[in-house]
# Entry
Amino acid sequence: MSGGHPDRRWIWKSPFPVWLALCVLLGATGTIAWLPLGIGNMLVSTAIGMIKAILIALFFMHLVRAKGTLWLAGLAGLLFLFTMFLLTFGDYTTRPNWWHPAPVPPGQSNLEFPEHALHP
Amino acid sequence: MSGASFITKESWSDPEQEFRASFGMWVFLSTELLFFGGLFLAYAELRSQNYEAFAEAGKHASFFYGTLNTFILMTSSFAIAIAVGAQERTDIKLVRFALVATLVFGFGFLIVKGLEYHEDIEEHLIPGAEFPSGMPAAQMFFALYWVMTGLHALHLTVGLGVVGRVWLIARRAELPENFHRTLEVSALYWHLIDVIWVMLYPIFYLVGRST
Amino acid sequence: MTDIPFDAVPERLSSEPSYLEEHTITSWLFTKDHKRIGILFATSITFFFFIGGAAATLMRLELVTPYANFLSPDEYNRLFTLHGIVMVWFFLIPSIPTVMGNFLIPMMIGARDVAFPRLNILSWWVFTIGASFTVYSLIAGGVDTGWTFYTPFSTMFSNSHVFAAAAGVFITGFSTIATGVNFITTIHTGRTEGMTWFRLPLFVWAIYAVSVVMVLATPVLASALLMIMCERMLHLPIFNPDTGGDPLLFQHIFWFYSHPAVYIMVLPAMGVVSEIIACFARRTIFGYRFMVYAMIGIAAIGFFVWGHHMFVAGQSNYASLVFSFLSFIVAVPSAIKVFNWTASLYRGRITFEAPMLYALGFVGLFTIGGLTGLFVAMIPIDVHVTDTYFVIAHFHYIMVGGSVSAFFGGLHYWWPKATGRLYHEGAARLAAIMMFFGFNFTFFPQFIMGYAGMPRRYEIYPPVFQIWHVLSSAGASVLAVAYFMPLFYLGWSLFYGERSPPNPWRATGLEWKTPSPPPKENFLVPPRVEHGPYFYHAEQDPGDLTEIDTGR
# Structure
């Protein structure tokens, strides 16, 4: 699949800004991780990781100029990955002890069903 | 039936032939995504159940080596993207140079990884009796750390073989007629290794830094 | 175009040697020909079918009396685990896709081979390597976890050969993935001129749908097994409750694969049955497009229902409700298919050759299996029958009554094409009828005793259930004979059978437009397609269905 600009300088001109953006994002995520944002740390670092992954997929892996069938192949994996997370967490987040966990004695799982749920 | 005789046969049109290699690779990449996806799901679920222990454990992972390796791998991805771009514009010298750069960065990643593993073992960050952190759930962070970074390193080693093979072909005086497909498909695999690492970096090296 | 007489011996007419011409061992083991790879897989899975069958035979013998006769409880555990692992991963999942899919997909779409022939033979080698790990675990003493490898038993307590068995399944997964990637790419890029998506035979659509499931589900099993192996060998706690780990997490990841795996087993069977019913009813398939949408729907929705295996495992009630609802939804496309097969028979000129007997058996047994699937999708009934023989009977109706029947149907239907020989029709019909009755005698009593409370996985049981167990074991002996019969009459036909014409069934489809056995590159000339499949209907003018395309 030959494509893109015929000029040889474009060999560098297309990937270089992407690499630069990746480096800036790496710097940003590495710095923000040390700021006390609570749960925000996790959200920001995951979001930046996803942005980096999307940049690589779109530009380094040439999804931008790819046929629809390639998108289909890539997105199918993503869609079912999303479903796996959605339905699994659909289970965990609707359990009675998810939002108000009982204090866990050391060495025990906090996943046991509370007594009131077994014998209402 | 060899691959070459395939193309010359009239029933196979050339655009299909061009397309099928990268399409097959994309389907395989979806598979890889879900392979790591199962492990990511395990991580997400266990971390959500043991939030503080994971934050505590995350402090033991090496921020320096992790960040350095992210930079190295992103640059190797950049290098192989250059190789593909140079091939499209028939600059074979630049193709060879960029492939060597990719390989050098790839080996560099493994060396840094080895140093990091060495340091982890010195600190007894292996789940078991000698594990330093007091919280039992912290051991699970490192269980997943070893499984996922180990699996990634295995993929990277395979990737080095794949890219090394492309480099050996590129050194020939006369390139085989399907060389551009070999290069593009191998580059796709290499980029995927990078994508996986980019997602591994925040979940193992940036956890619990601010607490 | 030259008309070839119905009983002509194709070899004399074609200059191309058939794919069976070479006889050296290496020409088989390192072949890149999709037809030979199909035969290699057929040999491997036949071997495993009889290993798994032997385990089932021992279990049924033991269960004739309520007391332990010749097996200890531990040996019984290892036997049902062996039966499950071998039948699921080394027979059912590879069966139709790797044997008939490999043999037929390129021919049905008019291609010379699959997209990646080297990957194809690699797939067989990977399968063989994975299988040898499992055979090792058998010889070394077996596994006692059940085929589901549930944690924490498999990771912390079992002292059987879990690692070798899990490694075997893990490696075999790569073979499945390679085959899936190959088929998807072949069907996307290898179709001949005029073969549009909606002119594909339903078997090709079925293999396409199943390949998508294989490619997206199998890696998740690989990740689950990888975590088990790491926890067992390297003592990395992931599912260990002592460190806050979660054994139920394994079930989520495992069933995300293993429920779609049920569709890996049954979707290709649906494809085979569609081909056979259209041929022997001499009718086009009723609602072709809806058959396609139904298969794609089953493949997609099949991913969203795995939680119905976990109703009693401590899953949240709200999640159970959602999974129960989604399980009802996935029954809709399955029902569409059953209605369409039935409607395809309407006003057909039906003949009852052996493949048709198997196919009709499939429709009936699959319907019973599917409807009892709705029983167990209902939470209250599932709580009652969980881990009883009711569940055993339900999934055997789908997998044995459904998939295995269809496998035998397809085996007979395409046997003349693959070997160039005809088999003894009377013996084949007898085997098909015996298989149907033997199957029902084996598994219908299990519905009854299961509903009455007989739990699965026990060799000792209350004497009140004995009558049902005896019935079941008696049926199993009929079934065993029916499974052995094809080995003899098909083996006989291989050497002494009458030579087959190119199209013994007068069927449509590109695979019949070439000599039997086909030449190395499948066709004498690249075929062109001008209309959809199943051109049987009288008003549609089937033309002379016996001709082969020689390009003259």
